[in-house]
Amino acid sequence: MGAKYALYENPNPKGDGKKQPLHARIVPKGTIHTQEIAEEIADSCGYSTAITKGMLDALAKVISKNLRRGYTVELDDLGSFSISLKCRPVMDKKELRSWSVRFGNVHFKGSKKLKQQLGPIDLERDSEAAATHYVPEQRKGRMLNAMEEKEYFTAAQYMRLNGCNRSTAVRDLNELIEDGKIKKLGYGKAVLYVPVNRKEEHE
To answer: Which InterPro entries match (predicted)?
Structure first.
């Protein structure tokens, strides 16, 4: 069975209510986790699921270790992993100290072979999905991704990014606060939304 897609309307950058072009996006069926991947590999190659899962866990640790050491990690038939950094903008390198440079995100670039394997993908229009704007999880994900480059977001910026109204933006942002993904600074019109770092998530 092939993947399903639906048509989505691009967010309106001007917020003037004018209809925007549609583009196709995959309709997610769910998430496949390590255990399920291990079971599929075990079925195809004869290894036990436990051994296969152990190897996948070990692979994740080796990738993480080498990324922390500054390497790009390339898996020939899959693609390469690298990391980006974040720091405040400065005009002079003397203004920046190493302690203020921090981890940004992990980036994955698919290999040529992986892209060739995905090229003949079977696609089917999702008949139950009408042309629509971004769904809540997509809106939230777009902001969290954008926060990798920005230190903060405002409700107005969220609205422009996702082409939604203020009540939708505030509802989404409050849900992200409840989920521990962001926190709110300030009051009234001066409210800023900033990401919660990993240390804060576990405190």
So the answer is: HU-HIG, HU_DNA-bd_put, IHF-like_DNA-bd_dom_sf, WH-like_DNA-bd_sf
Tell me if 197 is assigned to some domain: yes
**Structural domain for 163, as ranges:** 134-201
Model pTM score: 0.59
> Is 169 part of a structural domain of the chain?
yes
Q: What is the pLDDT of residues 100-150, one digit of tens each?
A: 788 888 999 999 999 999 988 888 887 665 555 677 888 898 888 888 888
DSSP H or E segment with residue 14 = none
Give whole-number Cα distances, 192 to 75, 95, 111, 182, in Å.
40, 25, 39, 10
Which neighbouring-strand residues pair with 82?
107
Domain count, the chain: 1
Q: What is the pLDDT of residues 160-178, one digit of tens each?
A: 887 777 888 899 999 999 9
